[in-house]
Amino acid sequence: MNAEFLEGFYPPRNFAFPPPQYTDFEISKVVVLPIPYDSTTDWRSGSRDGPKAIIDASQYLELYDHELDRESYLVGIHTLPELQPSMKGPEETVARVYKVASDLIQKGKFVVMLGGEHSLTVR
């Protein structure tokens, strides 16, 4: 698709919404992995909406990092589509997350997981 065709569409939701040339997977050093999961939450559901809410709110972040004194997005930030949790159970979902994160790390990516609930980081 050409740029003229895409003018009427919202850009893909990418964490911090950096300029498009800094969001390509191949050149990005940082990869954001959203995981909308809350199947083991025992009190109230809804944490599965956390990754989307965090990404949406990130558009208001300042791209300049005062502590590092640099434009951190210049290393490239790519946001993957939401990882589909397994309905077979939490073990299968954690295994899926582990596999995807491991593959990304093998590709030299710094992985930032945005999850719904705490069980996503267990392994």
Q: What's the shape?
A: globular
Q: Do you know the CATH topology?
A: Arginase, Chain A
- Class computed from helices, strands and strand pairing: alpha/beta
Mean pLDDT, to the nearest integer, reads: 86
**Helix content, binned percent:** 10-25%
**Major sheet, described briefly?**
3 strands, parallel
User: In the CATH hierarchy, what is the class?
Assistant: Alpha Beta
Give Rg in angstroms. Answer: 16 Å
Alpha-carbon distance between the two ends: 41 Å
- CATH structural architecture: 3-Layer(aba) Sandwich
Low-confidence stretches: none
Task: Name the CATH superfamily classification.
Answer: Ureohydrolase domain
Physical arrangement of strands within the biggest beta sheet: 4-1-5
Strand content: 15-25%
**Number of DSSP-assigned strands:** 5
By DSSP (H or I, 4+ residues per run), the number of helices equals 3
Count of all domains: 1
Order of helices and strands: HEHEEEHE
Helices and strands in order, then pairings?
Layout: H1 3-6, E1 30-35, H2 50-57, E2 64-65, E3 70-71, E4 77-79, H3 90-106, E5 110-115
Parallel strand pairs: 1-4, 1-5
Antiparallel strand pairs: 2-3
GO molecular function: metal ion binding
Protein name: Agmatinase
Give your account of this protein's structure:
With 123 residues, the protein is an alpha/beta fold. It is built from 3 helices and 5 strands. A hairpin with a 4-residue loop joins strand 2 and strand 3. The radius of gyration is 16 Å and the shape is globular. GO terms for molecular function: metal ion binding. It comes from marine sediment metagenome.
